[in-house]
Amino acid sequence: MMPHTSKRTRQFFTHTRLRPDWERLSAWYLTPWRTRRAAVVLALCLGIVALMASAVPTTASAHGSHAPRKSQVSHKSQVSHKSPVSHKSPVSHVSQAKAGNGATARRLLIARSDLHVDGLPNASELEVDLTISQTQSDCQVPLHGQICLRYNILLNDEPVQSGYGLISPGKVTVSGSSITLRTDTRHEPLVTRTAGSGGLISVTWTTVSGLPQPGAGTAALTVATVQGSIIGYTIPSTNVTAGVLMYSGA
Questions:
Q1: pLDDT at 98 over 70
Q2: What is the DSSP string of 137-200?
Q3: How far apart are the first and last CA of the chain?
């Protein structure tokens, strides 16, 4: 049964080539407008659902592509677990080590250890001077961790043996109450000999109550006795003045 339509509409579909599709087309165009709107809305909803369904695999693949990045980030966090800090911690621990009395351990340096001999039993006109230092450079060059050595032997006011220069700290031994120097100036490449050919120097400074223990950043002086020889001249037990000046680093 043909729906209720106007006479013009029936004439249009009757006298055109669309006539074979009359019933299908008229069923759409001639239905009430509310029904047509509902059909359009339904079609749009179905299209949106189809788009959402097609987007789900894309989202999953996107998450899958980001998964390795997350694992890499977590791996980096495990690698950079502040290992350099933990590696440096032993160094800081050593630098802050404390002595047995509870005071922070400090490095003691030889500020000056010297001796002066005014005359020998068999040579009254002979003078001997010897100085070593880890903090004061009388050697005309920077120390750079070395020890400055100066020696001078005068006979009748004329230099017999003299020289100056840097020697290795290994040539000096420091104990609780003594300092020992042992070196041969003939084999010291940084020692300049200004008189004589040089030779063996072997001297020990000994203090009665131990080496001074000054506070941080200060120095302390004490009197010492000396034994040994300087390039063939034995140090006598008389006419000798000797002392030790120690400096405490911070």
A1: no
A2: --SSS--TT-EEEEEEEEETTEEEEEEEEEE-GGGEEE-SSEEEEEEEGGG-TTEEEEES---E
A3: 114
Residue type, 194: T
pTM of the model: 0.58
Q: Which of 32, 33, 14 is nearest to 23 (CA)?
A: 14
* pLDDT of 57 above 70: no
For residues 46 and 40, what is the distance between their CA atoms, to the nearest angstrom?
10
* Among 246, 240, 201, 199, CA closest to 222: 246
Alpha-carbon span 129 to 138, nearest angstrom: 14
CA distance 165 to 35: 112
Q: Contact 3/23 with Cβ under 8 angstroms?
A: no
- Report the pLDDT averaged over residues 137-165: 94
Separation of alpha carbons 225 and 205, rounded Å: 6
d(CA 173, CA 48): 91
Helical spans, DSSP H, in 80-154: 83-95
